[in-house]
Batch of 2 targets.
Target 1
Amino acid sequence: MAIYLLRRLGLAVITLWLLSVIIFFAGQVLPGDPGRAILGPFAAQSAVINLDRQLGVDRPLITQYWTWISGAVHGDLGISYQYRTPVEPMLVSALANSAKLAVFALILIIPLGILGGVLAALYAGRAVDRIISLSGLSLATVPEFVSGIVVIVIFADGLKLLPASAYPGPGASFGTQLRYLILPVVPLVFEFFGYIARMARAGTIEALESDYARTATLKGLPRPVVIFRHVLRNSLLPTITVIATQVGYLIGGLVVVETLFNYPGVGRLIYNAAMSKDFPMLEAGVLTIGAIYMVATLIADLLNTGLNPRLRTGVAT
Amino acid sequence: MTAIAPAADQGSDDAGQPALRVADLDVTYRVRGQSRLALKNVSFEIGRNESYGLVGESGSGKTTVALALTRYLPRNGRVSGGSIGIDGADPMRMGAHELRELRAHKVSMVYQEPGKALNPSMRVGRQVAEVYEVAGLSKSDAAERAAQMLGKVQIPDPKRVMERYPHELSGGMAQRVVIAMAIAAEPALLILDEPTTALDATVEAEVLDLIASLRAQLNTSVLFISHNLAVIAQMCDRVGVLYAGELVEEGPAAQLFAEPRHPYTVGLLRCIPRRGQRKDHGRLDSIPGFLPEPGHTLPGCIFAPRCPIAEDQCRHAPPPPFTTGERRTSRCYRYQHTADLPRNTPVDVELRAGPEPGTDPVITIRDLSKTFTPTGGPVQALRGVNLAVQRGETLGLVGESGSGKTTLARVLLGLTSPDPGATVEVAGQAIAKDAAHRTRQQLQAMQIVFQNPDSSLNRRHTVRQLISRPLTKLAGLSGPRLRERLMDLVRSVRLEERHLALRPRQLSGGLKQRVAIARAFGGGPAIVVCDEPTSALDVSVQAAILNLLADLQAKEQVTYLFISHDLGLVRYLSDRIVVLYLGRVMEVGPAERVFSGPHHPYTEALLSAVPSLDGTRRSRIRLSGEIPSAADPPSGCVFHTRCPRRLASGICESTEPPLAEAEPGHLISCHIPIDQLASLQGAEAVS
């Protein structure tokens, strides 16, 4: 088990390093230079060159990368080009905001998805199943920026029920923050509901048709006991794993929603950093999301092993 | 039927009511908008404490009967006529609560794969205890009773087993647990649907013994469903034969198997090699044609199209059940003529040259060992195997699962590489260990027929492509010569030209296996490995495949390595037998010598585990426990932990006996001298 964990962590470090290299060099392909991006199109060329020199972006690429990576390894994520302040505190506060959004979304998505999937499985082939499966699939195909704009147009502009922006400003109460987050969460729920429901449905149908479900029914157990104790316990196992993997994907997928709803999370931070070639900020943001993704996947695998007695003993021996 | 309690009269209060009464039962499945009758007019009764066997091939509706009785038909199936009475109550006319009560107290079921019948994420003990919890016991009382019940099904150390998860149990152990759950509520009716089909013969024998002894203790009637006639003959008082959803014959087991009164039953029995029957004694008979298409209705008798004695009458009106004896019925107008039913396959065989004596062996194996090294530590799958097989000879490989049969076959084929030091020679020349390094001639020399033709044939290829491939790749044929050889092969495996354009899924199991055999013979091999070639097939199809293998061998002088768990088949087809245990050769010799004995105690145990159709067993020695792990083989003679004839001197525990010649050509690895084995085993057989 310990060896397995160490190997996974080692792999994660290598993956993150490769990711940092790719982002760095991909970032160079973007047109324009940081000085110009910061000072704007009307600034004098001499001022731009001056700023570039101060930022150190006129140096050879390898040197730039080396400076950054050696700092990052020591825990120094560098200074944002754009804001001229250390990256770290900005990243931390953005992460906190994103986490709020993600957690709120997951609290809605997981029970809805599982409930929908299990219901669809229990009524497989009937109207309930058709409605859940079809709507799940259709909603998932709608891109977030489309569904996001639709809910803004209807609920914020049209009915004026909820704010179109997601961020109530600093120091708002918990209730207010929640109210502001309702609209941004909707596109995320749309995106993930169908997928999770489908996994839950497939797993549940398989378990319902299994011999052990038959054994349980023929023991004379009441149907709810059969379903909760024998069916769901086995059918939701793969679903839980999928959800944990999706958490990583969700955090990465916040870019669109945060930008659309003007929410100061990691997604928007990365988006802005990319636009202004703010390299240290971009690197830090992307690597953070990469790390979260990998941790989520690792947790998914560990959960799967922990919940499945067959794998559990496999690891122990 | 020695082990079974006679169908005794139970308490007088029950006497009027049979445990099960099925009357005119029809079951219909809806498939793609069409109704298909799966069971038609099925009627039978099972008395108190009686054991009733239901036999039939796949597609006959055996399992549908069981599912209908427990009202667990799939959603597209329904009982469309007739009635069921379990202890007088009809599950079809029950509300949800009553149905649950019925399942909890009156009827329970055990099915084929014990591993799947248990919930994989729940401890075994809890699953058994649930039965008692349903009956209203507290959790701790239920656990206590569950432990007692597990003891009753002869599980050693029940408390510890209760803490395990199903995947930590062997197949035999898991089936005991399932049986414990099924009898825990002491149901009026216990349905056993192929309960031992997925188990090894030795484990099967133990489980059958267990069921027989439980029946003697409990007041339970049994419906025993199986495709295996011998198991039914051993376990049941009365038998019903199902064919295409109809009960064609019924009667007391011993009488029915001794004097069948329906042409289908006669045909089925003729498909099985009887004790001592061998390929050179004549072909097995087979049943011509196929089961009628599901949902296809005939105006007359359903068996008429395949029946050699059908008359006009049979094709026009369905026969009613005729009474053919005491408690015997047969749905056949001509039941008096079944005894001299003409054969479908002529009995005469072409004169076989047989293995050519004195010639050099076609395949020689020396010092063959194979050690797998998984994370748990090394596992010796084969150890020190030496063999030589003649041209035209059939070498039967027998042993329980885990004995190394399949590993040996894989090593020969070059799919698994043996430990260093082994040599494999074909026609006197050493060949590469790995199939990838073998020359075309070497690959051509050795081919295989797998157990399951569904997974061994490429689904996307037509039969023509499948059979042509070895002809072009290995035999190097093309153009008219390719076509000539292709047609030649097709004819010799008794396929027809119209099959060539079809894909595997359009063929029945038997036809698919013919394609697989044609494919194996395509390159003109010297050696064909047959790895359980008929175990996925029905009895009537199996006979035709065995005949085909025997004919092909006579014609082409190929050598077979025949692997099967069915000792009857091995005996029928093999010239010599190798008995493997934990990867070691326990015994090797001419088939008749190995079977008739004196033989190794392990061979003796294997043979005595086989149920036979006449319901008798020569000796009743039983292997206790499971085959030990090959990762940690016992000291001395590896068989000593289970050996019923272990010597008191302790030599079996300390020293591994050599594989020594006990009589010419017959080698046994045992410390007991052969004359002593002869007297031990002879004495046992007489008693």
Target 2
Amino acid sequence: MTASNNGVLNSKVPEGNLQDKWDNHKNNLRLVNPANKRKFTILVVGTGLAGASAAASLAELGYNVKAFTILDSARRAHSIAAQGGINAAKNYPNDGDTVWRLFHDTIKGGDYRSREANVFRLAQVSNNIIDQCVAQGVPFAREYGGLLDNRSFGGAQVSRTFYARGQTGQQLLLGAYSAMMRQVGAGKIQMFPRREMLDLVKVDGKAKGIVTRNLTTGEIERYAGDAVLLCTGGYGNVYYLSTMAKNCNATAIWRCHKRGAQFGNPSFTQIHPTCIPVSGKYQSKLTLMSESLRNDGRVWVPKEKGDNRPPNEIPEDERDYYLERRYPSFGNLAPRDVSSRSAKYVCDEGRGVGKTGLAVYMDFADAIKRLGVDAIKAKYGNLFAMYEKITAENPYEVPMRIFPAVHFTMGGLWVDYNLSSTIPGLYVLGEANFADHGGNRLGASALMQGLADGYFVIPYTLSDYLAENLHAEKVGIDHKAFDEVENETMERINNLLSVKGKKTVLDFHRELGQLMWDHVGMSRNKEGLEMVIKKISELREEFWQDVNIPGENSTLNKYLEYGLRVADYMELGELMARDALDREESCGGHFREEHQTEDGEAVRDDEKFCNVSSWEYKGEGKEPVKHVEDLNFEFVTPSQRSYK
Amino acid sequence: MTIHLKIWRQKDRNTPGKLVDYTLDDVNPDMSFLEMLDWLNERLMNEGKEPVEFDHDCREGICGSCNLVLNGMAHGPMPGTAVCQLHMRKYKDGDTIVVEPWRARAFPHIKDLVVDRSSFDRIMAAGGYISINTGAPADANAIPVNKYDADLAFDYAACIGCGACVAACPNSSASLFTGAKIAQLAHLPQGHPERKKRVVKMVDKMAEEGFGDCSNYAECEAVCPAEISITSIAEMRREYVKALSEIE
């Protein structure tokens, strides 16, 4: 059993030296022989980097895979939008990088709130990922000699980021997608597009199937399998405005949470420092400007409050390059949480720019002078073009205006070293798990983690579980457990459709998002969090009495899909606030105003909070129960994270 | 600003559809086109009417979900731009915009502006990959790729799979989509072992799915949001002819 015993979570981290843990573990994991692999069916939910790479790798091994996506094609999963790059400790530039350094940067970047063994494994397999992707035909950037090019990213002093112009996520996803389509062609993967997982089916405590809604016909469908892999991404859309795609949602992980999977560190949210600012109420999403831009862009605001002159008319000595000033050794490449908070501070002081005062400049004038327009165009051309399309301003001539936005959720379903949730047979990969990023994710690490989980971790760890269950009785979709879950799902849909109230789903989502952004965003305090928990529960009540979902269940109905998702955000949002309230310290992206130094830096409390908060659902109207996994740092010593 | 819309409404594949008129008088020029449709849908829902269904996801021009024909042009009037990245400031107060879905036999209709593009996935499953299992391939730098080919491969790999090429083509050909993948992999040494088999399988699959042939109108290149060049189609044909002449 992976579940907690007396509230103590067993992370199953193997014994031994950090360097040997994963190899030792692989030596001990049980295998399934090729003839028996054919007898197993694996359900993979989500087809982003984690899902596509897992589905392809498992099918190659001989398992039968069923893959599900809410979109019309697996290729559209939101991993596709990642711009900047993917880290690996190849040390091709000969600048002193090692697996240890990548591990150390990542664990420090996460503010010592992640598991050493997991992060070390991530750094170890990072190099295999690059090899794998190149072999698949991913067109990474290359130098004139034909070898791969690297660049630097936030929170690191070496150049270890591989990239494909500003479209690295797209190219990596298309690589994993093509590996998956190869298996579709070979008949080993069955693809189910336009399907949304609405619940998990458990038999004798183990994950044995899922219930999905066919988004074209509204039909509720049942799928049985020997294991379920959730690769459904993060839950940043709880905040309404985020850099997530519109269809990204939390329903699959939230439904599994309600079926018994514990939720790790729900309040750990990454607010990315460089996004295009909000322009009006109609705004439906925020667009990220890759962190890679901070290699050449200098971030500044006017020194004086309310200085409304156009940026090019503000002389050099009246500008405050606040990141360079506060963090001289990392400068504009300070990590995301630190950069975002700094932007918030200067805007709170009234030195923000643009119409709303909620923006700072990112200026390329120096880089253009130093390298020439052509060099900048070659590096960032597509990002500059995207910026111009959205804002109608030319960033080659005027500085970009940027502001922080919700981007990634480090929290997610709790998993052990094998990526197993607290429900046996339910595995969670990529952003959907609480993961390897602790309190803050470094740039170019999300792609790394998604692919590491899918290509190089799950194929090993899943076989161990399946070997143990080789003789387990097969569960079919006619099992009564499926009847119960299907009935509950239908009831939820019918309830939602029958409210026929006055407010749209958007009204509720916007309201929830504003509450979350104001009180569970970049800066949090006790009073605000207590208030927001109450407000969200009131909003939830109102939702079920006054929401208006148009149309019917039996056709394509995107506002019905949306309504079901927002209903789950309301519950998850409340848990996020509870977790933020409980964690009486500041770490990474979680900043509690009560815990800061005089100059506004985060103050961790390693005595009390060097741990993972893992929440157990206790039923409707009952308070969730917190379990704790202590984080033992054997190989690094947590220190005050300084980028000064 | 005021915008008049004529939007294709169709309940399902078996019910005839028609253009329906809507007028929005409070459109903000900074809205994206899809945000304007959100705005319209909110109004329709508040009036107790059914909202317009359309596909969308990333709204950053990279996922390829959005697929609208505006005044007869796939993705609208801006070159190199998916419709999610088109902003209302490109229109004038009082403009009328006709909004239709992709129309092609190989993209069956689902509802309103939503169509089924799974034929693209089947073309990919026929051969749009390199047959390499997850495991331990050679070091990524073991095979240098000259920068010219690497950059060209990237240009072709930038395809977002939206299907605008098909929608714009008088023959409903998927040659730009298929050619882009074939050309990408043909320019990389990793793609060479399966080069001949790949082009034949993908081209044959394209025809089987009901896409037409290319007759060099180049409408596809004109509307492609990823600005894929029709040289990819020339490359595909060259690869195809070479493959046929060399495979026994």
